[in-house]
Amino acid sequence: MALLRFMIKDYLEDKELSGLAPRTIQSYGDTLNEFSRWLVAEKEIINIEDITPPVIKSYLLYCSKERGNTVVTRNDKLQHLKTFFRYLEDEDIIGIRSNPTHKLKPAKTDKIIKVYSDEQIK
C-alpha cells in the first residue's frame, strides 16, 4: 500500500535530481498537491491503489467546474498526472494495468488559425 503524499515527494525529488527546471518541478508539485488535497477532501483517498480512471475524470471535472480551469490547463494537469503515474510504473510501484491515466486522452482544444492580410504577406 503506497501513500500518495510520500510518492509525490519521491517523484518531485526524482525530477529535481534529473535536472528539470525549478519552475517545471513547481508546476508538477502544484498539480499533484492540489490533486492530493482534492482526493482526501472529496473522495477520502490516500492510497495510490484507490485511484481509478473515474476518479481522475472526476478531478478534471472539478478543475473545470469548481476551479474554472481552461481546457489547456486541464490538459496540462492531465499530462502532469500521466507523467507521475508513469514514474510509479517505472519504479514498479504500480503496474501498467493499475495506471489510472493509461487510457485517458486530453480534451480537444480549439485551433486558432492565424490569417494574414495582403499587406502582412508582402
Automatic annotation (TrEMBL):
<dbReference type="InterPro" id="IPR044068">
    <property type="entry name" value="CB"/>
</dbReference>
<dbReference type="GO" id="GO:0003677">
    <property type="term" value="F:DNA binding"/>
</dbReference>
<feature type="domain" description="Core-binding (CB)">
    <location>
        <begin position="2"/>
        <end position="89"/>
    </location>
</feature>
<keyword id="KW-0238">DNA-binding</keyword>
<dbReference type="InterPro" id="IPR011010">
    <property type="entry name" value="DNA_brk_join_enz"/>
</dbReference>
<dbReference type="GO" id="GO:0015074">
    <property type="term" value="P:DNA integration"/>
</dbReference>
<dbReference type="Pfam" id="PF13495">
    <property type="entry name" value="Phage_int_SAM_4"/>
</dbReference>
<protein>
    <recommendedName>
        <fullName>Core-binding (CB) domain-containing protein</fullName>
    </recommendedName>
</protein>
<dbReference type="InterPro" id="IPR010998">
    <property type="entry name" value="Integrase_recombinase_N"/>
</dbReference>
<dbReference type="InterPro" id="IPR004107">
    <property type="entry name" value="Integrase_SAM-like_N"/>
</dbReference>
